[in-house]
Amino acid sequence: MNNFLDLCREAIGASHVITNEADMASYLVDWRRRYTGRAQAVLRPGSVEEVAALVRLCVDAGVPICPQGGNTGLVLGSVPDLSGRAVVLSLGRMNRIRDIDLVNNTMTVDAGCILANIQQAADERDRLFPLSLGAEGSCTIGGNLSTNAGGTGVLRYGNTRELCLGLEVVTPQGEVWNGLRGLRKDNTGYDLRDLYIGAEGTLGIITGAVIKLFPRPKATLTALAAMQTTDAALKLLTLARQQCGATLTGFELMSQFCLELVAKHYPQMHAPFPQPYPQYVLLELSDSESEEHAMAMLESLITGALEEETIQDAVVAGSIAQSRALWDIREHITLAQADEGKNIKHDVSVPISRIGDFIHETDALLADRFPGIRMVTFGHLGDGNLHYNVSPPVDMPADDFMERQHEVNQVVHDSVHRFHGSISAEHGLGALKREEIKQYKSAVELRLMGVIKDALDPLHLMNPGKVL
Question: PROSITE patterns, from UniProt (predicted)?
Answer without folding.
Answer: FAD_PCMH
